DNA sequence: CATAGTCACTTTAATTTTGAAAGTGACTCG
DNA sequence: CGAGTCACTTTCAAAATTAAAGTGACTATG
């Protein structure tokens, strides 16, 4: 009986979360799916930060493999997909809000109110103040 | 007058936070400083996840440049430093707790109670359940 | 019918980051 | 003197990111 190959660096929940979401792009894709009504490849790619197409493709595959995103065809011939968060994917909203709150308080980023569906505090160009 | 070179990819608070903390190691260093009483280079390096020395060195420099960590000499000849979170660094606790909560619920990682100073739920080897 | 355009990717190649190991400098201890 | 400790830095191969170009399956236009 072989040792069950561990998927994660450690037992720590923070390390495990970083193993799957710890990069500069994944949570931006989740943000766009969660709040900004972006659901096609093109819409996701057109976001302000301009993720490279190969990375977007790879990240969507990973999020689907994790069960955080699912896709369904919105067109045949050629088949094209619409991506959406699953229930598990939507559970990341608290995390996004916390990250946004910190970035607003400490890095001068904007504040988005998902309830209102709009920005309620503008960003400063470079940092806080 | 030159355009003030923007430090961040975008005005979004989430993108800005990921610009500075979005990798697999930075928040583990913060975790160890915040909760696990690890303050010297050696202690930080000895953590379960085994960060490479060059990365630890670079991350500590970045965290200091961001004002999230400060160091003070605890010994002369040779001078050696103890690293600690600043007030701004300690403000990341909510974020760590949120990340930990998500990783516990969805990836089966352990739960640490900072109040009690101990693990209150063990991790499962590979995932949730 | 040929050509241009759209969408969703994939491929390619240069650059950057990472990871693991080994090395360095300033000491202390035996 | 030689070994050991601590806090790094250096080195270099491997992996990830970036930007650009290319592909395939169509639809719309002249």
Any chance you could write out the topology, listing elements then pairs?
The structure is a homodimer of 129-residue chains.
Chain A: H1 13-21, H2 26-35, H3 41-45, H4 53-65, E1 69-75, E2 80-85, H5 87-90, H6 93-107, E3 111-113, E4 118-121
Antiparallel strand pairs in A: 1-2, 3-4
Chain B binds a DNA duplex (30 and 30 nucleotides) through helix 3 and helix 4.
Written account of the structure:
Two copies of one chain form a homodimer. Chain A folds into two domains: 82 residues, Winged helix-like DNA-binding domain superfamily/Winged helix DNA-binding domain (Arc Repressor Mutant, subunit A), CATH 1.10.10; 38 residues. Chain A has six helices and four strands. The first copy, chain A, is globular and about 50 Å long. The first copy, chain A, starts with 12 loop residues before the first helix and ends in an 8-residue tail after the last strand. The mean pLDDT of chain A is 93. Chains A and B meet through helix 1, helix 2 and helix 6 of A and helix 1, helix 2 and helix 6 of B.
Give a concise summary:
With 129 residues, chain A is of the alpha+beta class. Helix content of chain A is 43%, strand content 16%.
Enumerate the strands of the largest sheet of chain A in spatial order, edge to edge or round the barrel: 1-2
Q: Low-confidence parts of chain A, pLDDT < 50 over ≥5 residues?
A: none
The H/E string of chain A reads HHHHEEHHEE
Q: Please tally the β strands of chain A and state the result.
A: 4
- Report the total helices of chain A: 6
What structural category characterises the helix and strand content of chain A? Answer: alpha+beta
The share of residues in extended strands of chain A comes to 15-25%
Helix proportion range of chain A: 40-55%
Assembly state = homodimer
Major sheet of chain A, described briefly?
A: 2 strands, antiparallel
Radius of gyration of chain A (CA) equals 17 Å
- The tally of structural domains of chain A comes to 2
N/C terminus separation of chain A: 59 Å
CATH class of the largest domain in chain A: Mainly Alpha
Largest interface by residue count? A-B, 51 and 51 residues
């Amino acid at each position: 009986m072989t040792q069950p190959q561990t998927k994660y660096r450690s037992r720590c929940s923070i390390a495990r979360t970083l193993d799957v979401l710890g990069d500069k792009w994944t949570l931006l894709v989740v943000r766009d799916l969660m709040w900004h009504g972006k659901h096609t490849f093109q819409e996701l790619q057109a976001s302000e930060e301009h993720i490279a197409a190969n990375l977007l493709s790879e990240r969507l595959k990973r999020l689907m493999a994790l069960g955080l995103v699912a896709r369904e065809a919105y067109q045949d011939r050629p088949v094209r997909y619409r991506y959406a968060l699953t229930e598990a994917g939507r559970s990341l909203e608290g995390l996004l809000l916390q990250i946004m709150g910190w970035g607003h308080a400490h890095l001068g980023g904007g504040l988005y109110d998902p309830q209102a569906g709009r920005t309620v505090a503008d960003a400063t160009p470079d940092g806080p103040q």
